[in-house]
Structure formats: C-alpha cells, structure tokens
Amino acid sequence: MRRDRVTLDTNILVYALDRDAGERHGIASKLVERAAEIDCVLTLQALAEFFFTVTRKGRMPADDAAAQVDDWQALFVVRTSAPPTLRRAIAAAREHGLAFWDAMLWACAKEAGCTLLISEDFQHGRTLDGLRFHNPFVEPLDLGVS
Predict the structure, then answer these.
(1) Tens digit of each residue's pLDDT (9 = 90 or more) over 91-113
(2) How many angstroms separate the CA atoms of 32 and 21, rounded?
(3) Which residues fall within 8 angstroms of residue 22, CB to CB, at 6 or more apart?
C-alpha cells in the first residue's frame, strides 16, 4: 500500500498547541504526533506563519514559539519556496481561485512531493494537480499509525 507524503498547514500547528481550542486541539495534537511517525514535510511558510500567529497579541511568548519552531525543524523535513514555486502559486491563484498564501503552501507542498495537505482552509476533499486537501475537523483522518 502506497502512503501519502503529508504536509500540515499552519492552523493544524496552532491548534496542536492551543489548549483552549477544545476538540480541535485534541485532533490537531494527535495529527502532529502521528505525522512525526510518517512521511511528513513542513513548509518554511507554515512554520513562519505559526510563529507570527502565536506571538501576535501575546498568545505565546516569542521564546517559546521559537523553541517550538526549532523542535519541529528537528523533527520534520522542512521545504522552502523558490522562484518556480512563486510562479506555480500565482498560476494556481489565478486559475483555481486559491488565496495567494494558500497557493504558496500548495505549490511548495506539491514540489516537495506531497499528496495530502491537512488544513481547515482548503476545500475539503478537493484534489489539485495530485495534491488532496483534507480538513480533519470535517472528517476524521487516519494516518495509519497506531
């Protein structure tokens, strides 16, 4: 059985640490834990957005957020964007109606060989150029790890 190469969007990373997020916290924290055991890459963009999101308005101290980003960089392969990524993202935004930063995440994940993008921000169940979007808050997701 072929396994998906997975990536996690910023919202999953944020919910994984936000104990006030209720059910979303439980789902996201289990997903991040399981993702560490499978073929999962994170994008530099998702890590940067995580840092920005949790440190604005004091939701998390910057030192703690930086330490978390460092931990994830040690745990996961991290992929960066390049000029071709930007071109692909612009095309996806124009042709498929993706919001620009979502298109950047999609393009980087696509270039990293991902086949599954876990997020609440994309159209659940949609596949774009071989990369499937899954919202784990709409439908449970089994990453095949016990």
Answers:
(1) 999 999 889 999 999 999 999 99
(2) 15
(3) none
